[in-house]
Amino acid sequence: MKEALLSFVTAVTAEHSAAFVPEPERVAVFDNDGTLWPEQPMPFQAAFAFDELKGAVQRQPALADDPMVQAALAGDIGALLAGGHFEGLLRVIAVSHAGMTTEAFAAAVEAWLRSARHPRFERPYDALTYGPMQEVLQLLRTHGFRTFIVSGGGADFMRVWVERVYGIPPERVVGSTGRTSFELRESGPVLLKSLDTLFVNDGAGKPAAIHQFIGRRPLMAFGNSDGDLAMLQFTTINNPRPSFGLIVHHTDSEREYAYDAETRSTGTLVKALQQAPERGWHVVDMQRDWLRVF
């Protein structure tokens, strides 16, 4: 797997190679949850939203009448993840932060990352990025690639910490977004978060978002689930440029988690895994291929 990755990068960046691609066209897209860091026992943003939700309900008791809020407070992650685009989870995330300024939201995310700990690994959530994937990000940067996160997670949530954690600037985050509104206050201009979901960046939405926000077809795509299937297809099928697709397969229950068709969180992997051989996508077996996880 490592050899295939290095071979591809060398081929598209060596000036005298028949597969050479000019630097402005070297775009690589990465899913986040389950690809760059874990998504079990729930997506990390969901853990943040659940912690914030308790305070939101105290401030606005009427929120407790919302069925999705009730499910979250009861710890019913299954109810929140039901549906094609996890509408319940997105509802809880929106409810927990509606009415906040984007600056206040960013401060809340940073405060949570400093204090919260993963329930299994007992480490800060942002200390749980996958070491091998960090190496891939660094490899691509040193070879003139622009790396983007294209994730179903909230763009506002990820943009707070991606530059510090991954070395990816916030303007290269393509994620799910909610509607924001502008106000000019005595203290200055602010943007306010709302309850309205504007765009869910999952499944077929990912290629559309790549077109809308990046404007170039990627050469490389990295994912871990069927939510990344369309992004992998868009990157590799009939691409006029050389292309590379990779799937992280979670097979290590001792060092991380093992799941694919059955998962208690996000990350179902069936269709993409079935298509990998015919599409030429590389599948990383976490247990077999990674000497270290974090």
Mean pLDDT: 94
Oligomer: single chain
What percent of the residues sit in helical stretches (DSSP H or I)?
40-55%
- Sketch the major β-sheet: 7 strands, mixed
Structural class of the helix and strand makeup?
A: alpha/beta
- The number of helices is 13
Might you state the CATH topology name of the domain at 2-40 and 127-289? Rossmann fold
The CATH architecture category of the domain at 2-40 and 127-289 equals 3-Layer(aba) Sandwich
Shape designation: globular
* Highest-level CATH class of the domain at 2-40 and 127-289: Alpha Beta
Radius of gyration: 19 Å
Question: Which regions contain 5 or more consecutive residues with pLDDT less than 50?
Answer: none
Series of H and E elements: HEHHHHHHEHHEEHEHEHEH
Strands of the biggest beta sheet: in what spatial order?
4-3-2-1-5-6-7
Record field, number of beta strands:
7
How would you describe what is shown here?
This protein has 294 residues and is of the alpha/beta class. Strand 6 (244-249), helix 12 and strand 7 (282-285) form a beta-alpha-beta unit. It has a domain at 2-40 and 127-289: 3-Layer(aba) Sandwich (Rossmann fold), CATH 3.40.50.1000. Strands 4-3-2-1-5-6-7 form a seven-stranded mixed sheet, sandwiched between helices. The protein contains 13 helices and seven strands. The longest helix has 16 residues, at 44-59.
